[in-house]
Amino acid sequence: MEWWLTILLVFGGLFVLFAIGLPIAFSFLTINLIGAVLLWNGAAGANQLILNIFDSVSKFSLLPIPMFILMGEIMFRTGLGIKVFETIGKWFGRLPGRLSIVAVGSGAFFSVLSGSSVASTALLGSLLVPDMQKKGYSYTMSVGPILGSAGLATMIPPTALGILLASLASIPVGHFLVAIVLPGILLAVFFLLYIIIRSFLQPHLAPTYEVDKVSLSEKLMDTIKYILPLGIIVFLLLGVIILGFGTPTQSAALGAIGTVILSYFYGGLTWKSIWDSLTGTFKSSVMIYMIIIGSTTFGQILSYTGVTQGLVQVVSELNFTPVVILILLQVALLVLGCFMEPLSIMMMTLPVLMPISSAMGFDPLWFGVIILLNMQIATITPPFGMDLFAMKSVVPDNSLRMTDIYKAVVPFLALNLLLMLILIFFPSISLWLPSLMR
Predict the structure, then answer these.
(1) Phi, psi of 21, rounded to the nearest 5 degrees
(2) Which of 134, 122, 139 is nearest to 399 (CA)?
């Protein structure tokens, strides 16, 4: 069978399974099973599929995933992040767009401890939007900054989606987590500058209001009490890796232990929160490992049938420079992001994109960072971004329509695209820190 006919049948079958509502992981497993039997010599292909399933998940590099998910679950269920929001807010005084800045600052800090943009959206939306609405903030300066800052959970380690991408793309997880640090911080700075400038030019979007005066000593005490201990967890997650004291798996385990200990001392750790966190971690981890199984075997089927080689040859023969090809690939992913969620996109495209990037001579770390940013954009891209629906579900204001959410997120989509262009033309932003590790 010709490779182009194979790819039409495979991807056509996937879209049919998605359309009937079959979960992502089971959709890929169904296609893999059919492909293994039909294209890998019947029963022998099914046996090979089982062996591939075992090999795809029996990797030490995948152990950080449940640890990071556990951290996010504990943070979310014990209320550890609420005091962080209050402490950050005390430092901003009467700056233009104060609450929007608090949203971005809190979102960036919480993203380090969560790793889930949906969890960040749910927490920030439920805590901040009602208060922002009472203060007269427009949806543009309330919903928009929260959705933008929640997306930082994808771009600032630890990030479950980033670890999954690195695993699927066969990129060293530790190096990849370090590579996304500077792009994530740069994106947060873009958000802050945009909020301050727009609030200054259009003050009616984020009205100023009276803020209780807080003494410097109180600010410092709250920072020492609520922010500094969380900084220890940040060091356990990133400092251990950068300094070479441990692997990503070891740092993830240390971070999870540190989060549990902090929750205990803050008084939020109960048997119920422990049970809910463990069951939530178990459910999420099982689904992620199912996704890894499906994606790995899917890529092997594409390679065996010649689909991957055929696409690489087609791209290589295009009369375009590598940069133009890179931009065209990102545009295609952005279009997919309007209609699909990141996991589906990654599973469908990474088995093809990584060989193409290798043929073009792209650094896999740099290419992976750009892909991850694209996946972050997919979570807030209308009409079907996951975070958009998470925001609608947690905001009690019935006047908030999906069209309002779409309009509010557009400026932050533009800032994400700006960062993508900067990363494309200045690869050192994502490669400098990993070069220190080497």
Answers:
(1) 90, 10
(2) 139
42 pLDDT more than 70: yes
**Residue 244: alpha-carbon gap to chain centroid:** 25
For residue 30 the two structure tokens come to 């169904």
Q: Extract long-range pairs of 283-288: CB within 8 Å, 24+ residues apart.
A: 284/66, 284/69, 284/160, 285/65, 285/66, 285/69, 287/23, 287/25, 288/65, 288/69, 288/160, 288/164
> How far is Cα 177 from Cα 191, in angstroms, rounded to an integer?
21
Asked whether the whole model's pTM tops 0.90, one would answer no
Which residue type does 242 have? I
The mean pLDDT value for 158-178 works out to 82
Task: Write the DSSP string, 277-312.
Answer: HHHHHHHHHHHHHHHHHHHHHHHHHHHHTTHHHHHH
Calpha distance 98→212 (Å, rounded):
13
How high is the pLDDT of residue 367?
A: 95
Cα separation values, 209 from 32, 97, 127, 137, 216, Å: 58, 10, 18, 11, 20
Instruction: For residue 434, give the H/E element and its range.
Output: helix 428-437
Model confidence pLDDT, tens digit, residues 348-399:
788 888 888 888 889 999 999 999 999 888 888 887 677 887 788 777 666 7
